Amino acid sequence: MKKQVNKDHYSFSNYLSKQRWISYWHQLDEIIKLQPDTVLEIGVGAGVFKNIAGIFDINVETVDIDPDLKPDHVASVFELPFKNNSYDVVAAFQVLEHISYENLEKAVGEIKRVAKRYIVISLPDAKPRWHYSFYIPKFGVKNFYINRPTFGIVKHIFDGEHYWEINKKGYSLKSFLKLMHKLGLELITTYRVPEFTYHRFFVLRINKLNISDDCDVK
User: Fold this and answer.
1) Closest of 215, 207, 203 to residue 89, by C-alpha
2) 155: Cβ–Cβ under 8 A, 6 or more apart, which residues?
3) Distance (Å, rounded) from C-alpha 74 to C-alpha 80?
4) 18-34 vs 48-55: helix axis angle to the nearest 10?
5) Which regions of the chain are under pLDDT 70?
6) What is the number of alpha carbons within 13 Å of residue 12 lying toward its C-beta?
7) What is the pLDDT of residues 157-171, one digit of tens each?
8) Comparing C-alpha atoms, which of 136, 52, 126 is closest to residue 91?
9) How far is 15 from 44, CA to CA, in rounded Å?
10) Sign of torsion over alpha carbons 7, 95, 13, 56
11) What phi and psi, each to the nearest 5 degrees, are found at residue 43?
């Protein structure tokens, strides 16, 4: 793999929008709920997730192909330099769309190999939606959505970064979930961030035996 952007792509004014900060909140919330002792983050980005997680005593290691981003490990998602079942949770936030869909199975398979319990993924979801919310006393804020009318399914055009996006032509949500099932991953939940519906989260549990390096197989 080759890096697609330079380090300055992740500058505050260029990358860290208010909506992306909301997505960081969901990243942290999902990881905290899983109560992991060890977490591996695929793709460093601006380094925000690891730094915030550290405030809450969550041990996060990072891996990225770009040494300029100063990850803990420099490596490709296709060849992670870790033993089987090395981390309780492996996270890939807005990363997998940067590789071709044809290579997605290989990448997720490698992620599953080093994950012990869970995988948390976020991906761009291109299906247009209007988001509305209202407050109900004693019940809090309730969100609902209306799908914006479209004329057919949009075909994805590689923009130098994203090779594909959920709900563009050939990349339906159903086909992605089918691939996860094929890889032995059980879907716990999937949802779009209410305040930033372009980001869709997936929390997946490993439901097939991962054989560790030190166990005997008979």
Assistant:
1) 203
2) 168, 169, 170
3) 9
4) 50
5) 1-17, 148, 150-152, 208-218
6) 0
7) 988 899 999 999 999
8) 52
9) 13
10) negative
11) 90, 115
Check residue 158 and report its DSSP letter.
-
Q: What is the distance of C-alpha 119 from the center of its chain?
A: 8
**What is this structure's pTM?**
0.82
CA gap 94, 92 in Å, rounded: 6
Residue 33 tokens read as 């709920």
The letter for the amino acid at 208 is K
User: At 48, phi and psi to the nearest 5?
Assistant: -70, -45
List of residues 6+ apart from 185 with CB closer than 8 A: 108, 112, 119, 204, 205, 206, 207
Query: Which tens digits make up the pLDDT trace of 107-123?
Result: 999 999 999 999 999 99
- Local structure of 191: helix, strand or coil: strand
